[in-house]
Amino acid sequence: MVDPRKNAAKSGSPKENSLCAAAAYQKASTNIDPKCPDCADKAEMQAVILYPALGTPHVAPDTDEKIRLFLIVEDKCVQEFGINGAEAPFAWYYINTHLRILPFKDAHKTSADLTGKKLYSSPAAAKAGIQVWYKGPHGSEPAGGCGLGWKDRLVSHDGLFLANIRKSAVNLFVHGVISHGLDGVNPLIAAHKKAPQVCDTTNHPLRHLFEIELDFKGLTLPPQPDTMYTLAWMVTCVYKRVTEAFGGRKVSHWEHQDKLVYDFFAQMQEKKQHFAKPFIFDLGKLSPDKWPKQKETEAGRIKPFHPFIFRKQRTFLDIGHLTDPHISCRQFALAMADAAILEGTSSPIGPKLTNGLVATQALFDKFQSGPDKVDAIFMTGDLIDFNRNLAPGKVTGKSPKDQWEHYNLAGNLDVPDYYPRGLDDMLVYSLIKRAYDHNLPVFMVTGNHEAYDEPFGISPRVNSYSAKLAARPSSRAKTVSDALKAATRVQPSGGLRDYDPNQAKGKIHFSKIPDLSIRRANAGIPADHNLTIYEACLIYGPTFPQTMQGWDFMPDNFDWFFTLFTPLADFSVAYNGQRLTGLEWGNAERMLEGSYIPDGLLPRANEAMSDDQLALLSAVCEKNANQHLLFTHFTAVSFNQYKPFSKSDVWGVNKLSDKETYGTFVLGRKALFKWVDQDKITGHFSGHSHRTGAYKVKLDEEDEDNQTLEVEARDPAKQKANPDTKYWVGTNCGGMGVQSLEGELNGWNLMPPAGYLIEGYNSRASKVVTATEKRNAQPRFCVALDYMQFVEEKKIIAWNFLTGPRMNYTASATQVEGITMTVENVHHAKPFIRGVTFYVWDSQYKIFMDYSITIDSGSRQRDTLRYNCSHANPTGLLAALQASKPAFVKVEFNHGLAKVTAKDGANLYNQFNFDDPWIYRVRPITLEETVEVSFDPNGEFPDWKWLWGAYRDSGRYIDPKIVTDKRSAHR
């Protein structure tokens, strides 16, 4: 066989009219015989582009005129590229043959004419325009950054430390293995292994790293400014003759990385119940209560991309910062629910629910065009809620009997296709792909939820049953968490054994709730959805408290993110004098307090900042960029919702507190605060806490051993941030956030989905952009009051039926002389109630009887409001309330609080929707001279037994025991 390099010695390229090395390899290793000597289009050179990627795009000024990428290639390249030391003289030929530039919106990557138009217009242009640096084979990092070799870092040819590569990505691309979480790593097996193969489907190790620059001059498709493109390493599709591979559609070529992802999905479907159809969702006409259809074409197949864009006349990039969308496919099913607190009287609950995808897409659209247009978006984690989630297509009805059974995790998690893996990820992917279609690049880092395995109920509780489950999690959870114990200093899976000493008593029957010993595992979930706790539980059903695993954080679940979005765990990219750095969450979290103590610690990133992250940050900080923005999911400083922003404080640099460093990182704290203090990092943007905060931090460096921080906090959505602010914490962009400027509403001052607009020229968040005009994205005031009442146990409203002194406390012996209403615990309250209606149950006719009372305009004494009330038959009303089980009240609001301000003039409540009434259960308590009617402590969630009995004839409800008793064998 002819070695083309012998003929190429004179010309510097493989001889065009002889059998090329690629064809020789193909003939020797497969049963495809090249039909003609000019057969470079048939060459199989397996390679993967590490950078750019969907979550780490290449964004540069249009004056740059060079496209930069990192490529890893199989061993065959040593011969074909003519590698000699650091030189690869023939690499340009194969790059010109296989690499393509495609307009992103048209980049289907399903075919390529490799014999026709190549990357460059001519071989001479290709040789001149392609610059290659061979970094060496995979093994270990070269000492001092000099020499050949690489392990898990990307370092440029001029010595710039650019990124840490995620270990799972190295395992996939270099070692050909993936993790299932049960038995360590396993080989990535080629799909369709039972079908007869025409081509070699082996995934070869990609051990050789190259840095490449492509000069614009001579490109077949020169990039245009402000237009998104993608790179693609195109090869023959080895499954093109497998009938079932593409549903009858013809795919002659694709990227080799497309094959790896194809094989990855096939193996995930077999091993981890992945959703069977890996295609994007059509988000063009997105509605919160309609599950979007998929685009089941090859153009719609979920696959990796390598986008780049050149911005015109932009000295610095304006950035849209979004965090914590918590996109959950389950919300589409819940939004369909037509259950109502007062059947036939109050409005359905489902349409009130906030949808994380809808809210986040609304913010994407704002950042895409109009006055809030930005050059790029940076997303800082918690993109999804869970790796496994309900397939909304399983839910076809709206009534409780059609919905409740689907949310029973114990009964359905192990049913094939019911709670598949990947749906939340696929929604995120569809959102990101849509942004790129509109020329908007998106940078991404992970949060802790990207690792969360199985869902939990909509108001999860810790009780004897869930504690038992937590102490004895699924085999997969236990294996992973216990294996991590020594290496990552995390709480082992058995850590919950000591939490509930009654766990040995066995399971609790959900149908017997209420049980006052039950503790909330995460109180804020209904509020995130913009629902009261009762509303959320009613549409979800009697399995609302389920917590199926005590250890839901599975590091191997990060594989989806690092396979599809980017293989880079930590990265730093440059744009002129601007630097954007992103750091991942890490492989562990301190979980117990945040998940199981209601007002405890938000999970901390206890592996951050790792030595690798500190090394990257140190290298970038040494370059002293004009502007250096750091993006993470974990916070550096962040007050929890109970600490008002009106209070500044001083504490030690290494203090880990549930009040001031909520959801923070553990390692390398001194280094970060020092770099920020020295302006080596000019802005740190994070999320996680669901509370917008602009923090001015003054570092006292006089005492090196006992450094302290003086912190002052503002809400830039309502207050002017301090000019020296460098720490910015974002609220969740997919649900309701929380706030407390002066302690108002006990920390439940709910805020709409929002993001920061960061002006590139000054490193600051110039504006908080909200999505309140979208359906259900405006926080409901009734939800805030509900949380004060049931979570904070504050009495908000009480009605006193004046009966006068008497010897007998029985209601029938009293006459009501008057009714007063008292409102307490609302900060800076002004009369805000315009109507009150009581509802008592008529068991004979099975309907609610309504009793509307008349109230005056109200008066105020400090923060207490008093109203005089009247009713035509107050004695009869009281008797009805005392006889009814249950009894409800509907409180309607005016807009009296909309203009209430804090001491500094900031509006406290103007973001609220005051039009939705507050409906909740009440009970009368007989006192010495009055009967007080106020909230029923047992009315936090529905009385399931009563619901079944009251509405049995309607056919809309189902026996709660049918729902709760369904359990799989090992749940």
Automatic annotation (TrEMBL):
It comes from the Bacteria. Gene3D superfamilies: 3.60.21.10. One of its GO terms (molecular function) is hydrolase activity. Residues 319-466 form the Calcineurin-like phosphoesterase domain. InterPro entries: Calcineurin-like_PHP, Metallo-depent_PP-like. SUPFAM superfamilies: Metallo-dependent phosphatases. This is Calcineurin-like phosphoesterase. It comes from Formivibrio citricus. The lineage of its organism: Bacteria, Pseudomonadati, Pseudomonadota, Betaproteobacteria, Neisseriales.
